[in-house]
Amino acid sequence: MRLLIQFTDEELADFRWAIYDESVRSGELRWQAAAAQELASIASKNPHPLIIVIPQQCVYLTQVDLPEKASRQVLSAIEFQVEDQLAQDIESQHFALGDTSKNPIAIAVVARTIMERCIALAQSNGLRLVQILPELFLCPWKDDAVTLTAGHDGYLLRYGDYRGLKCNTQSLPAMLELVKRSIEVDRIVYYATDADETPQLDGYTLERQPLASSHPGFVDAPLIDLQQRDYQLSSAWQGLAKAWKWVALLFAALLAVSAYNKAIALNELETELDAIKQQQYELLKPFLPDASADANLKKLLIEHLKKIQSDQREQGFLKMLLDFTQAHKKYPGVAVSRVGFQGNRLSFDVSSSQLKDIEALLESIRKQGLNAKLEGLNIKPEQSSGRLVLQGSDNV
User: Is 89 buried (19+), middle (13-18) or exposed (0-12) by CB count in 10 A?
Assistant: First the structure.
């Protein structure tokens, strides 16, 4: 006897369960639906070895073609052969192998969180977990035909020892068209119970057979048991690891030599970098007397240059203001109502009853070598006004 528990989604909460009698060996399993909280009760009433079935949408099936010669990748590198096919970080995924004597090698990929929850559920309920299988391997298999059967909430379509998919009724014709791109679909064997309806598939020869007359797909047929590596070291991984033991050791030795060479090169670079930093410190020490050799010299130099620039601007402002004041003494009739400084511009709002005094003041400032001009000049009989602007140089 085997207790089969198939979870309905990736949460591994609600499930359906059935008892498989090995003496009967019928593919027709009497599934019963159950909620998550019923697992303990069902487990206590059915203390048989447990097979957990993972929803097919949670398992990615693929294959890797490995060379026959010594350039073949070692076991630890197999995950990286399918890394570009996955949308997740490979560190978060668990990889299980099919028959390693065949090439290409079949691989099943499932999230580690799902595997960890399977183990935890079995342990917490005192169940003897013997296999963790993708849902696809419930579908019976014939080497000379594509097989089809009803799974949970959809069809299971199997077209190879380790190849297949799950789909609903509406998408089944489209999925078969995709399968035809990789293999020839001569006939489809549909394993069904009396209650199952036959899907309408135009252009295909559909042979209906009783599900009860066949074995389930996990009996006497190729399968991938997900209990491998961190969750249970299976014979598939043991065989491959043993076959490539010396290759793996050589690979590890090459990695060690490469790491040593990188460490030596890194040490040399660090020595050169320290020498460059010391040279920079010696060059900047006269300008940054308070800085230490370990300080961020770049940041300190930028701050020092900003301070020099600020001082220069302040000095430029004071010089232009002084030159204007000396020139203004000669023309006391010119009134100054407002002084402004922005960027390199020093401006004065001036007014006088005599326009010629404002013009004379402008000319006197220009004679001192300053770039001066009048803006917004407003001439009236009783009072003239405007803005006298002194423009400093860009480096001031």
Answer: exposed
